[in-house]
Design brief:
mainly beta, six-stranded antiparallel beta sheet, two-stranded antiparallel ribbon, 7% helix, 32% strand, elongated
């Protein structure tokens, strides 16, 4: 009764489908790891077998031919949780970073989809190294977010005018 429900949707909350069928019915395990520092991660294990067609000698694998329009490396996906009939609570917005296929002897085939939150984009170094001499710390953060090309922006906690003296510069 009180087991949590999980779903995987597109960034805007639209249903995520593969081959015209919802991906959520294939979720066998979902783990979200949020840290106080560093990059948050998620791991979604999906059942990779199709049950809509019977094949005697070899099963039809559901996720072996992924359309890049549906899921590809860098795709932004959102993980939501809820209990019972409560509204869905967004847990993490991630970008797909790894796909692993497993074919265990004791159970059916699986696909593991791993993702990292959008802070992971900042691990990629820009092509041109820029210096940050004599820049305000807020300017450095804004420049880094712009250079990474991830579509993130800084929401300052307090306006700059509230600082009597400028923050230390690098």
């Amino acid at each position: 009764l009180f087991a949590p429900q999980a779903r995987l949707v597109k960034q805007n909350g639209e249903a995520l489908t593969v081959g015209g069928r919802s991906i959520n019915q294939d979720i066998t395990s979902l783990t979200v790891t949020q840290t106080c520092n560093g990059v948050g991660q998620t791991e979604i294990v999906l059942n990779n077998q199709r049950f809509d067609a019977f094949q005697l000698f070899s099963p039809i694998w559901r996720y072996n031919k992924l359309d890049p329009k549906e899921i590809s490396f860098g795709s932004r996906l959102r993980v939501d949780f809820r209990y019972g009939s409560d509204p869905w609570t967004p847990m993490m917005l991630v970008r797909a970073t790894e796909l692993t296929f497993g074919f265990p002897t004791g159970s059916g085939g699986t696909m593991t989809l791993k993702g990292e939150d959008l802070l992971s984009v900042l691990k990629t170094r820009p092509t041109k190294s820029k210096t940050h001499e004599k820049l305000h710390e807020i300017d450095i953060v804004e420049r880094t977010l712009t250079d990474c090309g991830c579509g993130l922006s800084l929401a300052p906690l307090v306006p700059r005018q509230m600082f009597a003296a400028p923050l230390r510069t690098l």
